[in-house]
Specification:
With about 190 residues, this protein is of the alpha+beta class. It has helices at about 20-35, 35-40, 50-65, 115-130, 145-155, 175-185, and strands spanning about 5-10, 10-15, 65-70, 80-90, 95-105, 135-140, 160-165, 170-175.
């Protein structure tokens, strides 16, 4: 069953979650169980068994609560996960805003542009493929994660605020559809 369009940008292809092979499900499951990856997402590694993790992800996808993708590299290998979630207004209403999450699951690939290409592909999906298109995409990243902030800014995100916590600060960023489309037309 095909859930959504495949989207290509640079070296990456976004593959819809509902199209994953069993091997790709095992890889994504390992990403979500990895302690370092979880810490970068301000989460704890999941403890669910794989079959339950898979069921929850598929159910959220089918209800429209999440638009999830695997990130394939230029060789077709699954290297990460990308998603839009926290749609506003919530389904079944037509969402205009969503939150972006992206994870390149292999640290050896960090800093090589895969994350930036993944974000561009996901924004392309959100603003031109998704029906109706979203009008704004937002995200939050750690204040100390300057590499991510630079990558998001290169994709058109602008900082809109910060939240200070006891041990860290969070940077809130967003990009609008009109700004993103304007950047696309000026770069072509």
């Amino acid at each position: 069953m095909t859930s959504a369009a495949y989207v290509h940008y640079g070296r990456v292809t976004l593959k819809p979650v509902l199209d994953f092979t069993p091997a790709e499900w095992r890889t994504v499951y390992r990403f979500f169980r990895d302690r370092e990856l979880a810490e970068w997402n301000d989460a704890k590694p999941i403890r669910l068994p794989e079959f339950l993790f898979r069921k929850i992800m598929k159910d959220e996808e089918k209800t429209g609560e999440r638009a999830g993708f695997g990130v394939l590299d230029e060789h077709g290998k699954l290297i990460g996960n990308a998603e839009l979630y926290d749609f506003r207004p919530s389904p079944p209403l037509r969402a205009t805003v969503a939150t972006l999450g992206v994870m390149i699951g292999f640290p050896a690939l960090w800093g090589q542009g895969y994350g930036r290409e993944t974000v561009e592909a996901l924004l392309n999906w959100a603003f031109t493929v998704q029906e109706p298109p979203l009008q704004r995409v937002r995200l939050t990243t750690f204040g100390h994660n300057r590499r991510a902030q630079r990558a998001f800014a290169a994709c058109g995100f602008q900082e809109i605020g910060r939240t200070e916590h006891l041990n860290r600060s969070d940077v809130h960023m967003e990009v609008t559809r009109s700004d993103w489309l304007g950047r696309q037309s000026s770069s072509s």
